[in-house]
Amino acid sequence: MKLTGKTVVLGVTGGIAAYKACELASRLRKAGAEAHVIMTKNACEFVAPLSFETLTNHPVVTDTFARPETWEVEHVALAKKADIFVIAPATANIMAKMACGIADDMLSTTVLATKAPVLVAPAMNTGMWESAATQENVQTLKKRGVHFVGPEGGYLACGDSGAGRMSEPEAIFDAICGILCPVQDMEGLNVLVTAGPTREALDPVRYITNHSSGKMGYAIAEAAQKRGARVTLLSGPVQLKAPAGVEVVDVLSTQDLYERMMERCDQQQIIIQAAAPADFTPVAFAEEKIKKDESGGMILQLKETQDVAKAVGKRKQKGQVLVGFAAETEKVTEHAKGKLAKKNLDMIVANDVTRPGAGFNVDTNIVTFITADGMEDMPQLSKADVAQMLLDRAMKLYRKK
Question: Can you give the pLDDT at residue 71?
């Protein structure tokens, strides 16, 4: 019984997909979970509360002001009991309330009060899903750590065809299990991840760098740690909180990154290089701040830095998996394929940083996974989702070694 001992609070809102929530409640009960259902007033127009009460063996909560069966503040009690809070189906209305912190019924009040992970399964008309307001709300919720499953594309009850159909109960159940019982397929593995930019000093005041935020690398490190790996994160200067349980080694320049990598790379089973090290560094460092002069300009001489990924590729150990990144602005797959071979990588993750949602300093990415066997184009996803997909593919490569 996969979810024995876990408490799931299931919120059901007013949509035609509410009937599917009955199957989800049944799956949760069969998996050993305690399921408590909160229904909105509109949800009761689609499915009777008695259905959920029969399936869960618990009373359904529908009214903020109903007298509870036990003397406790019910929305607070359920918020505290939850190991996970799931809303399926989730209408545009409930997501808007969550994004704005509105608490005007039992469901919105309880989800606002919970500290448990929240999983949302949207269901609505395609136009509503694609509207600017809904998409802004979705991005707001994702930034706060809310998990999403779906929506799927297909024929909708309203007669439209497109995105907006709620994911099937099986997919929602799998997402719940993924959050409550994360895969531990990397247990015992040493994984090294690089993240963030490097800085190449010009003088005591100035340096050359790039726009990398480190978010992608940190997401990978966190995901690998949760999957059981011993993770070392070589991090350039970023404004991010270190993931729990991850050894963080700070680096500043590309030379720093190279030296720390050479110290550690031989002991790793998987190396994922998501950092954006500078390709060039000044030929000479000015000991004093460089001053303006009457010429009105300055000639800056640069030389190539160490190619860290290439150096790691030359020292590749038997059974080791090497993953690189290619942040490009043109001929993305062509350049990425060239790096795959040149740097002796098993996989490279390519993205066009000029595309909205795929560049630096954002929480999403649009990537292509490239190996010697082919390419996989991904839609826009959160960097956390990209991290999981990357690790799935890295593990497949590792098992083949």
Answer: 41
CATH code given to domain 7-180 = 3.40.50.1950
Distances (CA, A) of 333 to 221, 311, 386, 388: 25, 22, 18, 22
Measured between alpha carbons, how far is 31 from 87 in angstroms, rounded to an integer?
Answer: 18
Identical topology for domains 7-180 and 190-283+297-400: yes
CA–CA gap between residue 11 and residue 34 (Å, rounded):
14
CA angle 80, 28, 59 (to 5 degrees): 60
Active site residue 265: no
pLDDT in tens, 255-305: 999 999 999 999 999 999 999 999 999 999 999 998 888 777 888 899 999
What is the pTM for the complete model shown? 0.67
What is the CATH number assigned to the segment(s) 190-283+297-400? 3.40.50.10300
What whole-number distance in Å separates Cα of residue 224 and Cα of residue 243? 10
**Mean pLDDT of the residues in the chain:** 90
Q: Which two tokens stand for residue 138?
A: 């979705």
Question: Apex CA 202: angle with CA 197 and CA 207, to 5°?
Answer: 30
Distance of CA 84 to the CA centre of its chain: 17
306 in Cβ contact with 338 (< 8 Å): no
Q: Per-residue pLDDT tens for 110-157?
A: 999 999 999 999 999 888 898 999 999 998 998 888 999 888 876 666
**Catalytic pick from 22, 44, 158, 177?**
158
Q: Where are the domains of the chain?
A: 7-180, 190-283+297-400
Q: Count Cβ atoms below 10 Å from residue 371 Cβ, excluding itself.
A: 16
